[in-house]
Amino acid sequence: MWINGKIGVFVKTLRRFQYDLAHTILRSGGDGQQRWLCRPVSSSGPPWRLLFFGTDQFAVESLRLLTSSRNSSGRIVKTLEVVTLSGDIPVRRFAQQHHLVVHQWPPDIADGQFDVGVVVSFGCLIPESLISKFPHGILNVHPSLLPRWRGPAPIFHTILHGDTTTGVTIIQIRPHRFDVGPILNQELYHVPENCNADELGEALATKGAHLLIETLMSLSERLAVQQEQRHTGATFAPKINTSMSWIVWEEQTCDQIARLYRAIGSRIHLRTTWMGRTIKLLDFAGKCHISLSDQKRKPVPGSVTYQKESNTLAVCCKDGWVGFKAVLLKKRLTASDFYNGYLHQTLMKKMPNQTAEELLVSRKGVTVSHQIRKFVTAS
Question: Are residues 56 and 186 in the same domain?
Answer without folding.
Answer: yes
